[in-house]
Specification:
Layout: E1 5-6, E2 30-31, H1 32-43, H2 45-58, H3 61-66, E3 68-69, E4 89-91, H4 98-107, H5 131-139, H6 145-160, E5 169-171, H7 174-189, E6 201-205, H8 222-225, H9 233-240, E7 244-249, E8 269-270, E9 273-277, H10 283-290, E10 296-301, H11 307-313, E11 316-319, E12 339-344, H12 347-357, H13 362-368, E13 374-376, H14 381-387, E14 391-394, H15 396-399, H16 405-422, E15 425-428, H17 434-461, H18 467-477, H19 481-501, E16 507-511, H20 524-527, E17 529-530, H21 532-539, H22 543-547, E18 552-559, E19 565-572, H23 577-591
Parallel strand pairs: 1-3, 6-7, 6-10, 14-15, 14-16
Antiparallel strand pairs: 2-17, 4-13, 5-7, 8-9, 10-12, 11-12, 11-18, 16-19, 18-19
Length: 608
């Protein structure tokens, strides 16, 4: 008796009475033999449900989902009100050719000065080669895609021979790369490259189809039950622009983790410190870009899986609005929280790749009614002036809830510089019900994932999954249909709170993660690990963009005292990718610290 609670309607919540409560996840950290034993227990018929029920009670999940009256009606996928058009942008045609969109996006970039990049000045601070640098080198005949391909192949083979294994790619065919590079080289010799992306090396996460490679989702068996017959829609758009698709990048198995641990193929290491995780689940895509081997990679993001590894590896990761990019041909294409998006070394490269892959599916154009996609016009004088009117929302207590003050200090410095240099105004905001948001997200993504996995698990494939995936599935199985509906009621409440905030601010700013790259316990390499405290730190600021379908980008801004990268996250209004990309470009240009060369770095353009 007395457990029942009744929530006020979202519109009646008194924001002045909202108190920030730091997250306190109650769950064991396990690796090795104890972890194996734990998984056996939670998969056992009676004791397993008792353990899961205890963990859910300890973390107030049952209290939220089962004992609380939530007055809102369910929102089963993000629903957005009509949005005002963005200013100082160039519209892109969803139904147009990808290469034409990329050409338009290229014209929106600041003027390119090749002399500053090809002077041979070895004293200049480290910088990544941009897509325009490769294009200039190819057009000027300094090198060819085929020459770059040979450097790429030898570097990947070096990675593949590491002990213990730490592969960037888990499906890789050197001859396939050489064939694509030779075709690109020929196009440059004939003077007719397909686009600025022609000859640019890109990796594809292993849950996105890229023919002829299998899509395993980094399992050992998915390719046995699901044949890849063609590229995913997003991949086919890159291929039509001439991109060289190098293979399938490593990932946390089935995307069910935030560290990038993978006991099946080996765990990808952070290029800045090989004893640390990359973050996940798009571990291979972030690491292959951060190590200089690819200009871009495609990842998926259902719970920070693009933004977390981008932040931890010191690169740029974009999660677009839910429904902005066609998900056909991905393992997570039927969910309500996931998107496909680019990971690149620079903001301008993110803009170019985003222009290539964007375009909603016909179903989402009807149900979501997206605004016309656009990119910021960074070439115009008015672009920097439009930054002056930006209002940036900051929830200070949340912003400062980080594992190390290095993170909040660096991100705070960025806000100060944006104010000084561009006149951006920081507005204090309050975001209620963060715990409820996390609960609604885990129930949503977990139930949707279980729905897609159940047929194969019932067919006997479950025991062939890693122990941390099996731990997650055991939790997901404990959710009921009523839990799922309760989570969708929460989704509508939390959408209301955020849309109200966006009446006062243009962009919500947070650190991307609550900690920098965590160390890899040696015992976790063989059997994986479960560490929900680390997951909580990594996902602290991530969830709103997934549960509510909002666009968000992570931009590197500096390093902690150990030299590990720190990212800042910009969360925008629905369909307002151009606004967050404009601010991201300004942060990169005027607010971020000079970049440090990662310990594991390959210059495949010049071959140095």
């Amino acid at each position: 008796m007395g457990k029942k609670q009744v929530m006020l309607p979202a519109s009646e919540v008194d924001l002045t009475a909202v108190k920030y409560i730091p997250e306190n996840i109650q769950a064991p950290h396990l690796t090795g033999a104890w972890f194996k034993f734990f998984v056996k227990l939670i998969e056992a018929p009676v004791i397993g449900s008792l353990i899961m029920n205890h963990l859910k009670n300890e973390n107030k999940i049952n209290e939220m989902l089962r004992y609380t009256v939530i007055p809102e009606i369910p929102m089963f996928k993000p629903e957005f009100p009509p949005q005002e058009p963005e200013l100082e942008v160039v519209d892109l045609e969803e139904d147009g050719k990808p290469e034409e969109r990329v050409e338009l996006a290229l014209k929106c970039l600041p003027e390119y000065d090749p002399s500053s990049n090809w002077s041979g000045d070895s004293t200049a601070s480290f910088r990544y080669w941009k897509i325009r640098d490769y294009a200039y080198a190819y057009r000027s005949k300094f090198t060819t895609p085929s020459m770059v391909a040979e450097r790429f192949i030898s570097a990947i083979e070096e990675f593949n021979n590491k002990k213990p294994p730490a592969p960037l790619l888990i499906s890789f065919d050197p001859d396939e790369v050489r064939k694509q590079a030779a075709a690109s080289t020929q196009r440059f010799e004939q003077g007719n490259p397909l686009s600025i992306l022609d000859g640019i090396f890109m990796a594809i996460k292993d849950d996105i189809d890229c023919y002829p490679h299998p899509s395993k989702g980094a399992t050992t068996w998915m390719h046995e039950v699901r044949e890849v017959k063609k590229d995913a829609v997003s991949v086919s758009r890159l291929r039509s622009c001439g991109a060289i698709l190098v293979g399938k990048a490593n990932m946390h198995e089935l995307g069910m983790g935030t560290t990038g641990n993978n006991a099946n193929y080996g765990t990808t290491r952070n290029p800045h410190d090989p004893d640390r995780y990359t973050g996940g689940s798009s571990s291979g895509p972030a690491a292959i870009v951060a190590s200089g081997l690819c200009s871009a990679a495609l990842g998926t993001d259902g719970g920070g899986s693009i933004r977390i590894p981008s932040s931890l590896c010191g690169v740029v990761g974009l999660k677009s609005t839910y429904g902005r990019i066609d998900m056909e041909g991905s393992l997570c294409g039927a969910g309500t929280v996931e998107v496909i998006g680019p990971i690149t070394a620079t903001v301008e490269d993110t803009i170019l790749v985003y222009a290539a892959i964007l375009g909603s599916s016909p179903v989402y154009r009807i149900s979501l009614r997206p605004n016309l996609p656009c990119v910021p016009d960074l070439s115009s004088q008015q672009s920097s002036q439009s930054l002056e009117s930006l209002r940036l929302g900051k929830y200070t207590e949340w912003f400062n809830d980080v594992f190390s003050v290095d993170i909040s200090d660096k991100c705070e410095n960025v806000l100060s510089r944006l104010s000084e240099k561009h006149g951006c105004k920081t507005v204090e905001i309050v975001i209620p019900e963060l715990h409820e948001m996390r609960t609604a997200h885990i129930v949503s993504i977990g139930s949707e994932c279980l729905c897609s996995m159940n047929p194969d698990c019932e067919d006997g494939k479950g025991p062939r999954l890693t122990y941390d995936t099996r731990t997650n599935l055991a939790l997901f199985r404990s959710f009921t249909a009523a839990d799922y509906v309760a989570a969708q009621r929460l989704r509508r409440r939390i959408m209301y709170f955020h849309l109200e905030i966006f009446k006062k601010v243009d962009i919500i700013v947070t650190p991307t993660t609550g900690m920098t790259a965590p160390r890899i316990p040696p015992s976790a390499l063989n059997v994986g690990e479960t560490d929900l405290q680390v997951s909580g730190n990594l996902m602290r600021f991530i969830i709103a963009a997934n549960l509510l379908g909002l666009p968000a980008v992570s931009v590197p801004v500096g390093y902690d005292k150990q030299g590990l990268p720190i990212g800042i996250q910009l969360i925008g209004r629905p369909w307002c990718e151009a606004s967050i990309l404009r601010l991201a470009a300004a942060i990169e240009e005027t607010c971020a610290e000079p970049k440090k060369k990662p310990l594991q770095f390959h210059d495949i353009l010049k071959g140095n």
